[in-house]
Amino acid sequence: MKIAFCASEAVPFAKTGGLADVAGALPLALEDAGQEAIVIMPGYEVVRRSSFVVRRLKENISYSVIGKNIKVYFIENDKYFGRGGLYGAKSGDYPDNLERFSYYCRRALELLKEINFRADIVHVNDWQTALIPVYLKSVHSQDAFFKDTRTVLTIHNIGYQGLFPREEFPKTGLDWGLFNIDGLEFYGKINILKGGIEFCDIITTVSPTYASQIQTAELGFGLEGVLEKRSARLFGILNGLDYSVWDPAVDKMIAKDYSIRSLGDKYINKEDLQKTCGLRPDKEAMLAGVVTRLAEQKGLDILAPAIGNMCKMGLQLVILGTGDLKYHRLLQKAAKKYPGLISLNLKFDNKLAHRIYAGSDLFLMPSQYEPCGLGQMISLRFGTIPLVFKTGGLADTVNNDNGFVFVKYSRQDLIAGVKIAAAAFRDKTGWRARMERAMRCDFSWENAANAYLKVYEKALSS
To answer: Among candidates 317, 313, 286, 322, which has minimal Cα distance to 303?
Structure first.
């Protein structure tokens, strides 16, 4: 099967979020499964400034290679992509994003013809690439080159839809006849993601529970009706985790490698984390870790006011991340009030993140909603027990055998969950058994790739 994976970001070249991890890892897993895959992404300034080997294919098209032989093509255009950011600057989104990503989508399809890559599947991701299915079924509907091509659209976070004023519709290059309730019109505006949903052959999202949740008014962000209409073609596939990066048995960023057979060495990492973060070394004190974006979606509205209660229980807490200023201030106030119990790190620090996963006993992830989530998967592999709110991918990966789950989104229920975890922590035999069950969980990309291959077959038979 020939698969063209289209994404607005992909590791190791450009990243702002989890989409980049998927775009970098899933094609590799598909290649390992015997499929022929390529990746097409914008040629951002960050790619040109990187140390990766990038070769020139032709004017405004370059490429690099990942895996055994996966070509990653970069569509270059200084007017659109020769900037510091991917989607915007500190002042907000770039005002010409519709023009930028319309150009990318059109050029990606042209490129497939230029390199004679007759894709069975064009796999697009989020709104930035969602015009590709629209172009294929409108502009290219009579193009023999694409007659056997099918499209799969993955929604990584339905909160981002590509909304633009009606007046900008000509920038898409599409006929005005597609600006209607069954096309790209959404309450008088252009909605690029909606167009992709309407025109693609298969829709996927990044966990089974999230696939159900986005069909509800609570988490559908206005598109629940459109998705419910296409529910027979909507599938939830859990993202994988790159175990070559997240494996305590071979992690060079932590104080001491360990595995399920040497769990005692995990406590060397705990002591190292306590010393590094200015906390009192104490094997018996439960150490809770948080690695997250400091925002309401990530549960900071219930976590921040619960920290005092946790400290009164004797918990130690290490927090790493940046985000909304109001949560910076709330957490700074708490850290000042409970010195020696809270280590607050308002920054991005990959090495410290690894050390938090390795050294913590408990990992807090009380997200309001979480399409998939990687933090809980990482913590499970490191034997650091996750405590999560039952939503999205968290509900699909964490249960009362390998972690702790609270089902009502409130500060009180989060605190109650921490109390239950603290009581379980005092039972050392039971806690070790829970750690072992956590570390045996398998969320490999191989599993995800096999699920995607089944979805691709459904698309081809449509």
So the answer is: 317
